[in-house]
Write a structure and sequence with these properties.
two-stranded parallel ribbon, about 300 residues, about 10% helix, Leucine-rich repeat, LRR (right-handed beta-alpha superhelix), 13-stranded mixed β-sheet, mainly beta, 2 domains, 17 strands, 4 helices
C-alpha cells in the first residue's frame, strides 16, 4: 500500500494489489478524500459501499463497479484505461469532473450530468460532437487525439469558457466556435490541418489564445476584432503566412505575446515585448492572464 498526501487539496490514498481494512477505516474517518486504484484486479470493493469520497481515479479495467456506484458525494472521476463495459455515470449524480479514454462501450448520451463542469476525453472516434447532450453547466473541455473533422455540436456546451485541443489530425473546420458566446480561452496544439483560423475573430470574449504545433495562419488580421485578447501565443510549427505581425500592435488589450522568431517576419519577439512593456508598464506572465479555471485534476 502506498499513501500520498496533498496538504493543500485534501489527501489521496493510492492502493496497489488490495484494499486493506486499515485503509477503509481511514477513508471512513475522512482522512482521505481521493482514492486511486492502481493496476491489478479489484473484484470485490464492497467495503467501500456507502462511504463518502470526493475523487476516484481508476487505472484498472477489472473493477467492482456495483460497489463503487454506492459511494456518496463523488464529484471527480478519472478513468486512466479504456473499459470494455459501459460505466453508468448517471449513478454519480454529483460529478463535476470526468476524464477518460474513449472506448466502444461508451455513448455520448452517457454524459448527461447536471453538475458537470470539466470534461476531458482522449481518443473519441466520431466526426464531431453533435451526438453529445446539452451540458449547460460545462465550463471546460479537452479533446485529445480524437478523430473530429469539425467542431460541429460544440454549441451544445453553450456556456463553455475554456477549450483545449491536442493532436486532432483530421480537424479542418473550427467555425463552430463562433457560436460560443462565453468562451474566454482557446488552446489548439498539433492540429495541423485547420484551414480557417480567421474564424476565431468572431469569438468576441476571447482573452487567452494559443495556436501551436503546426498549421498555417493565413493572416493575423483577425485578432484586431478581439477587443479583450490579453494573451496570444503562436509558433512551434505554426506560422503566419503573410509574415506581417503588425496586427499585434492593433490589439490594445494585449498584455503578452509569445512566438518563435522566423525569417521573413517583420517583427521580432523582443520588439513586441518592448512595446507591451511601454504600454502596460510590465511584461505579464501567462498565468496572470488566464481565466479563473475550475480544478483540472482529480
Amino acid at each position: 500500500m502506498e499513501m500520498i498526501h496533498y496538504s493543500q487539496e485534501g489527501s489521496r490514498l493510492t492502493l496497489r494489489g488490495g484494499l486493506e481494512s486499515e485503509a477503509c477505516e481511514e477513508i471512513k474517518k475522512g482522512t482521505y478524500r481521493v482514492l486511486h486504484l492502481k493496476t491489478g484486479s479489484w473484484p470485490d470493493l464492497s467495503v467501500l459501499r456507502g462511504l463518502s469520497l470526493e475523487g476516484l481515479i481508476i487505472s484498472s479495467d477489472d473493477i467492482d463497479w456495483d460497489s463503487l456506484y454506492q459511494l456518496k458525494g463523488l464529484k471527480r472521476l478519472e478513468l486512466r484505461v479504456p473499459f470494455k463495459h459501459a460505466v453508468d455515470f448517471y449513478k454519480f449524480p454529483q460529478l463535476e469532473f470526468v476524464k477518460l479514454i474513449w472506448s466502444k462501450c461508451y455513448n455520448e448520451g452517457s454524459f448527461y450530468l447536471e453538475h458537470l463542469e470539466v470534461l476531458i476525453i482522449e481518443g473519441h472516434k466520431g466526426a464531431d460532437i453533435s451526438e453529445f447532450p446539452c451540458l449547460n453547466n460545462l465550463k471546460y473541455v479537452e479533446f485529445i487525439r480524437c478523430a473530429f473533422n469539425s467542431m460541429d455540436g460544440i454549441d451544445r456546451f453553450a456556456n463553455l469558457k475554456g477549450i483545449y485541443l491536442y493532436s486532432l489530425p483530421k480537424l479542418l473546420d473550427i467555425s463552430a466556435f463562433t457560436r460560443l458566446h462565453q468562451l474566454k480561452s482557446l488552446e489548439i496544439d498539433c492540429c495541423k490541418r485547420i484551414g480557417n483560423f480567421e474564424a476565431i475573430g468572431a469569438i468576441t470574449h476571447l482573452s487567452y489564445l494559443m495556436l501551436t504545433g503546426g498549421g498555417v495562419i493565413s493572416s493575423l488580421d483577425f485578432i484586431k476584432k478581439l477587443k479583450q485578447l490579453a494573451y496570444l501565443a503562436f509558433g512551434n510549427g505554426t506560422k503566419v503566412e503573410t509574415n506581417d505581425l503588425t496586427p499585434l500592435y492593433k490589439v490594445k488589450s494585449l498584455k503578452r505575446c509569445r512566438f518563435h522568431n522566423s525569417r521573413g517576419y517583420n517583427l521580432k519577439q523582443k520588439d513586441v515585448e518592448m512595446e507591451l512593456i511601454k504600454r502596460h508598464g510590465k511584461l505579464y506572465e501567462p498565468e496572470e492572464l488566464m481565466w479563473d479555471q475550475p480544478r483540472m485534476r482529480c
